[in-house]
Amino acid sequence: MLALVLVCAALALILALWRLGQRGRYFLHVFQLEGYKTNEYRAWASNRSGSHVWRLSHTLGLLVIALAAVGLWAGWGAWIVPVALLLYGLAFFSAKLYRSARIKKPLAWTDRMKRLRIAVVAWTLLPVVGGILAGFHLGYGADDAFAGWIALLAGLWAADLGAPFWTLLGGYTTKPVENSVQEGFKRQARVTLAARPVLHVLGITGSYGKTSVKFIIAELLKQKYNVLATPSSYNTPMGICLVINTKLKPEHQILLLEMGMRYSGDIEELCDIAQPHKAVITSIGVAHLETMGSIEAIAKEKAQILEHMKPGGDAILNGDDERVRILSGVSGKQWRVSLEDESAEIYGSDVSYGKEGVRLIVRDDTGETAEIKAKLLGQHNVINL
Questions:
Q1: What mean pLDDT do residues 318-330 have?
Q2: Packing angle between helix 38-47 and helix 163-194, nearest 10 degrees?
Q3: Per the CB 3.0–4.6 Å rule, which of 36, 84, 253, 369 could disulfide with 68?
Q4: CA angle 89, 95, 101 (to 5 degrees)
Q5: What distance in Å separates the CA atoms of residue 55 and residue 79, rounded to the nearest whole number?
Q6: Which of 311, 341, 343, 345 is nearest to 329 (CA)?
């Protein structure tokens, strides 16, 4: 009987631990996608408590453990243990949710994620170790005492159910370390920029379009200047610090930074790292409404880039977005860009589309005009241009 139990236990452990690894990785990824923000991650998990946190496998596993415990207590016989081990393994065999879930960005094993994983694994092992120790107390087979295996299953069950909670605890545990690491990166970035007084910093923010506008501006400026632009959507404090600390070279003349936000104070934090000489605001919309609370709060936060520019800095604003158009607080010049208002400092007209893309005429505030052609379609791309 003991040999049979050991074989069944090995199968159950392999399946349970494999599923635990898949589930733990999934919640680590969610935590990263939520920007390592414990409040946002907790809200995400709370909203999915019945679909992602508690699964059918947890109900089945709990039933198996309960029935096995009752069976041993009632004297049904030791045969109940290998049966329970096999049923438990089958209950936790599926990890489909964690393999096939669509993701916005793949999991990046950054140094921060590696530190977080160590903390999460440590928390995850607590119920498993507890189940093992309880099992030694109850017995794993000596004198036909098999209750220890049920205790081990209970520990595995608790570890699997608690996967989202262990990730949250890992976030809290590593937060002091991460704060210290981030402050070090910020100091390094400030020192790097301070040593480059002639470097011109241009900051871009907006609910929509900021990445596209950043790449368009970068291509235009590269015709005359040596430009460094943040890649992809590197628009967080650590993303900007990474670019400044590792990519900025002495030959760069312009630093083009995309500045994102999710909470009040985010833009100010980014400007504290790299204070822009000029600022671009592409749009103000409902993106991040869940974290900001209202469109007015989003507009106020986006406007912080104007408040924290260098003295005399110019602002380039989307004049066709009414919430952007009314922003103030610019000590330098305010350039409104519009396809609708002829009084705007930068005005686009005569827009036409063809098989080769878009064509339009652009006029500045001096009356000078230029024709622009681009292999882009859609009015949103025209205002971006």
A1: 84
A2: 150
A3: 84
A4: 170
A5: 28
A6: 311
Which burial class, exposed, middle or buried, applies to 342 when counting CB atoms under 10 A from its CB (0-12, 13-18, 19+)? exposed
Q: Which two tokens stand for residue 139?
A: 């017995």
The answer to whether residues 271 and 304 touch, using CB atoms and an 8 Å cutoff, is yes
d(CA 188, CA 136): 52
What's the alpha-carbon Rg for the chain, to the nearest Å?
29
Query: What does the pLDDT average to over 81-110?
Result: 75
Neighbours of 374 (CB within 10 A): 16
Q: At what angle do helices 237-246 and 266-273 cross, to 10 degrees?
A: 10
| H/E run at residue 347 | strand 346-354
pTM for this model (two decimals): 0.75
**Residues in CB range of 112: below 8 A, 6 or more apart:** 36, 174, 178, 181, 238
Question: Which pLDDT belongs to residue 271?
Answer: 95
Residue type, 31: F
Q: Yes or no: say if 302 and 205 are a contact pair by the CB < 8 Å rule.
A: yes
For 14-60, the DSSP string reads: HHHHHHHHHHHHHHHHHHHHTTT-HHHHHHHHHHTIIIIIS-HHHHH
- Of 158, 161, 174, 155, nearest to 117 (Cα)? 174
277 pLDDT higher than 80: yes
Quote the CA–CA distance of 240 and 59 in Å, as a whole number: 45
Which single residue is written with the structure tokens 């733990």?
24
Compute the average pLDDT of residues 138-163: 82
> Sorting pLDDT into bands at 50, 70 and 90, what band is 95?
low
Asked if residue 233 has pLDDT above 80, the reply is: no
Query: Is it the case that residue 101 has pLDDT exceeding 90?
Result: no
